[in-house]
Amino acid sequence: VSKKWYIVDATNMRLGRLASTIAYYLRGKDSPMFTPSLDMGSYMIVVNSEKVGVTGRKRTDKLYRRHSGRPGGLKEETFDHLQKRIPERIVEHAVRGMLPKNRLGRAMFRKLKVFKGGDHPHGAQKPEPLPI
User: Fold this and answer.
1) Using CB atoms within 10 A as the burial measure, which of 3, 23, 76, 106 is most buried?
2) Given this model, what pLDDT does residue 2 score?
3) CB atoms < 10 A from the CB of 59, how many?
4) Are 72 and 113 in contact (CB under 8 A)?
């Protein structure tokens, strides 16, 4: 299966809707030959990840947790703080949660490329805009 490259500009898009569309194309569900046990999806490039938005009070109330593996190593930060610090992680976290939780899902996730600004190093692949 030849895999396409798509590019998405995340400016003023809602996080959940954007992530579900990206996960749909990463899994390959847009293909008429979709097979759940095979990696048939496309490559996705997301630019301007720092401009993705959420509705309601999620900007201050939504928490992202990580654990160092040591006792007492749980750290939490809000959506707003993480967006200022590492905006790529927000989109990656949302999309990863919508993919299968196995070897196949990890292989699909590796085809997602998220960038902070409007530039990306994948111009040679000639990505086309995602039909949203």
Assistant:
1) 23
2) 82
3) 14
4) no
